[in-house]
Write a structure and sequence with these properties.
about 60 residues, mainly alpha, 1 helix, about 0% strand, rod-shaped
């Protein structure tokens, strides 16, 4: 009886750790995607600001 409780506890702990691992992997993928696209976003923003300044100075 005691061994079956230990096995049940172990299975519950494994399930919990698996869920936590999946959550961390998903977060890692999200951060990698953000890190990959951030330079393009920054450059696009700077180009837009430059165009706005040039347009403002020409008028």
């Amino acid at each position: 009886m005691e061994k079956s409780l230990d096995v049940t506890k172990l299975e519950a702990e494994i399930t919990k750790l698996t869920a936590e691992t999946m959550k961390l992997v998903a977060e890692s993928i999200k951060l990698d995607r953000e890190r990959r696209w951030m330079p393009f976003v920054c450059v696009s923003t700077l180009i837009g600001i430059c165009f706005a300044i040039v347009k403002f100075l020409q008028s």
